[in-house]
Sequence to fold (489 residues):
Amino acid sequence: MLGFDVPQPVPRSLTTGAHPAPLARSTVPQGLVAGGALLVAMVVGGLLTYDVRLGLMLTGACVFGALVLVDLPLAIAAWIPLAWIEYSHFTGRAPLLAALLLVVGWLGARRAGWRPPHAGAGDGRLAIAVGLLLVWLTLSVAWAGDRSLAWHEVKSWYISAAAFLVIVTTMATPRNVRIVALAFVAGALVSVLVGVTGHSGLTTTADAVDLATRQRFSGGQGDPNYLAAGLVAAIALGAGLLPSVRDHAGKLGLGVAMAAIAAALAATESRGGLVGGLVALVAAVLLARRQRLRTAAFGVFASAVVVAYLMASPGALQRVTAFNAGGDGRAELWTVAWRMAGDHPVAGVGLASFQADAKGYVREPGTLQFVRLVVDQPHVAHNLYLQQLAETGVVGLALLAAIIAASFGAATRAARRFDELGDPALAALARASLVATIGFLTASLFISDGTDKRLWILLALGPTLWVIARRAGAPGGAAGHSRSPRTET
Fold:
């Protein structure tokens, strides 16, 4: 495991000056735990003799459930890679069940008396914005064309928002936030490995992916464009982790991992992903302050890997550079989304109603070349912001924009505070989280991924880092000087 550059534990907590307490401990009697473990072992043993796959799934669920009870932050880190492969055939419903277990474990820990570091008034406004967005999305079901589909979409939004809340309120220590970033990079590698071994593929309906893209590398996401958006963010977070790694072997390993991720990004042949990567690179150089030369050098390295792959694959290079080959239908989907938003500007047509209602807009003036993507094979808008505007109106888009802006603001404030505290490693990670989110959101101009858990993980990093920075700078808090303080987890 990578060794992070941290000193010995400080004897006093960051907030009260008292000895730090563990985040959460199980209050279940040991005898009951032992009896339950024996019963589960017997059941799993019987299932393994009957159905190996089912037995292994139950074993994994039991191990993860135990991890949630013993170490909730580590369980969150173990779940993050699952968010990268939730649409892969062999995972089934494991990512969803793991997310639910995390929420249950988080609620149980709070009920048992554990309280996470409070974010305060500024971050309370962010929580209110998330709550208002969920309320508005729930209300939009009332005017949605297909309410059963809308309710299914609402559940996805609630799960993603719950992941956001759990991370912000649980991972607000230097060690834990680094673990989140490292788990995100590891998830990218897991997704790439799943794609290389041939286990990728969507388990959802075809509306989530353009069938014409299936020959491109899609990893464990099942869609190359969705994979590319996350890979851009993973590269940025990996770069942000480098100053926190204390040994050369760890730095080398992280560098090799990012090179592999950059090659996978090129293999997706995703123009949206490459645009997101370019915007992220420009943002990184602008935000780097005293490290602009080093940041630019790293960007050149990552870009060189992408260019080398494209030059070695003429078909990939031709697709990426062929902007006048007739288009892929996105422009017409965007046209329909604009028309829909024009007719329903305030409230939208209702959650998850774009595909059903889009058919009514193909007869309006103007030529649509890819009508099949609207009528025969209905697709989503392939744009996060237009999808949100068309389905939930200006209100829904404004609430989502407020959450994004608040996350950006928190990451920016955290980076400045860490600079003031003399902690360049955490300042670099804060800026990297901002760059990663910018890259992901730029790539989201070409995909509809509002419920993508990876997006909400990235949005959670800014507020989490701001909590750490504010606690470190508070009276009685342990401010870092060139190295980050370490607190118990």
